[in-house]
Amino acid sequence: MLRLPVRCCVMKRKNNTDKAVLDFIAEAGLLKRVKRSGWWVLGIENPESVADHSFRCAVLGYCLARMEGADTEKVLMMTLFNDIHEARISDLHKMAQRYIDGTKAEDKAFNEQADVLPALISGPLKDMHENYRAQNTLESIVARDADILECLIQACEYREHGFKEAVRFTKKAPGFLKTKSAKRLWKLAAKYSFNDWWHRLSTFSR
Predict the structure, then answer these.
(1) CATH of 10-193, one of 1.10.10.10, 2.40.160.20, 1.10.3210.10, 2.160.10.10
(2) Which one of 15, 34, 113, 126 has the fewest CB atoms closer than 10 angstroms to its CB?
(3) Between helices 138-160 and 50-68, what is the axis angle to 10°?
């Protein structure tokens, strides 16, 4: 029986591992093209992508983690990877979730994504996913608040851009916020003009 040299076998395993990681990165890139479905149901022809949402969700997660004294790295992981499964099952709006078990589909897609990755990557990802699902740690609560708050802020921005129906998203969601920091930010955001920051810079620039 022909046996490959040990070094050759090690290199082959490394190549397979690297390929799995690169596949995962390529799959994450698909989220740049997956549109957030709730917005196009509302009539917004070119709504934000899942990647757009995840980026600002992570920014919010960082800020809220610092404000609430939570573990920043854990919160950032949750906010960055929370919607990674949508590369496979898309973003399911509320109407679809009447007929499809969204949680079951999300978990299946996520686990299949993670299972092909090396343990040093998949292990922390699975721990993060379970933690977020359980919602029994400060970090998971902060990450969930970041997700909700990002949606609320996006709704306010769409409203300012003329999509009046976006206000519907600001009626019920605030009631799900749990941290004091997120509640304070939403109280301010609800009355905030999201063009103020750049208008001030333009006004005082030479």
Answers:
(1) 1.10.3210.10
(2) 15
(3) 130
Ordered by start, the domain boundaries in the chain are: 10-193
pTM: 0.90
Pairwise CA distance, residues 118 & 124, whole Å? 11
Q: Which residues make beta-bridge pairs with 49?
A: 35
Distances (CA, A) of 49 to 39, 45, 77, 123, 200: 10, 12, 19, 27, 28
